[in-house]
Amino acid sequence: MPYRALVTGASAGLGTELARQLAALRVNLVLVARDRARLERLAHVLRSRYLVDVEVLAADLTDPVALDTVATRLADREAPVDILINNAGFGVYAGFEASDIADERRMHELLSWVPLRLAHAAVPGMLERGSGWIMNVASVAAFTPTGTYGAAKSAAVSLSRSLNIRYRRRGVRVTALCPGLLATEFHERMGEDHLPSLPRIAWADTTRVAREGLRALYRGRAVVVSDWRYRLGRIGIAVIPNRLLERLGTADASLDEPR
């Protein structure tokens, strides 16, 4: 039987591209996001182009009831989900001293608690079947002191490493995909004034990032930084003294990975 993947944040950006590439591999899909209309349009395209089965599950994952609905779908033994992609996310642009604490809480719940909750729902069935894959989309911000967004993403990296170590020998592979800047709607949703003024080379290609992420997931790599320019940056981060890294991190905390 063909595999089935559940992708959160599937209505735009990296989530849409991950769904498209999975469909091209003939993987059936469960698409999750808040905007049902956009999900339905994407589902129609994927069904007609790749001849795969696509379910639409509209849900605001920061709402406990909606989150439980998605978790219940993941735990369904009758129509099992083999691949979980935790991609949904947003950022808080305001500085910590000025941000709305409700926005901070929603962001941390979506980036940290939601991947844990959904993985917790998916893992038991995967272990029973002896196979499964979970991708938590994190960020290169997880490796630098770049504010509360980076703090939440570091939790996703730590969770991925822990689960991969614990369950890989039992057939369940867990990967943290850590992109850099992507040309998606992430910054646009925060307003045009929040778009970083950076040269073209600083922006990673969404298609390549999705492809590298899925390849790393298949191979069972616990953490993958994508693409090449950010892998080079990750090497640099490892050798920069902590005091200098802290100064760089506070210089501009707005360069978080966009999806």
UniProtKB/TrEMBL annotation:
| Record GO cellular component, one term | membrane
Protein's UniProt keywords contain Amino-acid biosynthesis: no
GO MF terms here are: oxidoreductase activity
This protein's UniProt keywords: Oxidoreductase
Q: Which InterPro entries match?
A: NAD(P)-bd_dom_sf, SDR_fam
Q: Does the keyword Oxidoreductase apply?
A: yes
- State the family it belongs to: Belongs to the short-chain dehydrogenases/reductases (SDR) family.
The protein's name: Short-chain dehydrogenase
Query: Which organism encodes this protein?
Result: Leucobacter komagatae
Upper taxonomic lineage: Bacteria, Bacillati, Actinomycetota, Actinomycetes, Micrococcales
